[in-house]
């Protein structure tokens, strides 16, 4: 039986959406179902921990959350009052934070531990459907300022051994992230860029990496990602499973009525 966990890049949705069913109705139903399905894909085996690379945390050098009980970060505005009181009380894992730091340092990356960092919505909103009981330890890894694609692929390469240690690696961002064009004006860019992603991820691994490193040459790339912080988690998830197959595990053509959005898995699902 395959025990190596796959890695994921997930489009995490907007703000605290799992806690706004009354307001959103079934807007996020397809995304939610895809996140719930991650449990099935890894064989319904609870991982030792989850390492999340969030598009909502960037630092000059890499940082890992190392608190045993991370607090909450309500990094959004204009939502109902109750969304600033939600809790996702998953424990942290100082041990995983140190293990990941050691792997990154050995690979030549500057990295530090942050004992105060909490869960931002790129982590808790995405994980709530996957593990609603918040009973799996979670560590967050920052992005590195500058968003160099190769650097983030190398970060993933360094973290790859964690997959054999029961750690589920998830890059949490959005395949389309232009908040100024999140309606009908974003239809063309989101669909063109998503079509490119789908095509590239079917390429042989070496060609796939090369294409993604030059993502800025894709159709409507800068319309889809004026600032690429929500795309860089994809590079880490790719790097951690670089030679393995990719699969689209979530896709909508009319998200919020107009947008194409997707999530991807790298590596094979674990046999149940």
UniProtKB/TrEMBL annotation:
Top-rank taxon: Bacteria
Obligatory cofactor(s): Zn(2+)
Gene Ontology terms for molecular function: dioxygenase activity
Matches recorded under Pfam families: LigB (PF02900)
Keywords, comma-separated and alphabetical: Dioxygenase, Metal-binding, Oxidoreductase, Zinc
Extradiol ring-cleavage dioxygenase class III enzyme subunit B domain span: 8-246
Transmembrane segments: none
Family classification: Belongs to the DODA-type extradiol aromatic ring-opening dioxygenase family.
Protein name (record): Dioxygenase
Originating species: Massilia aquatica
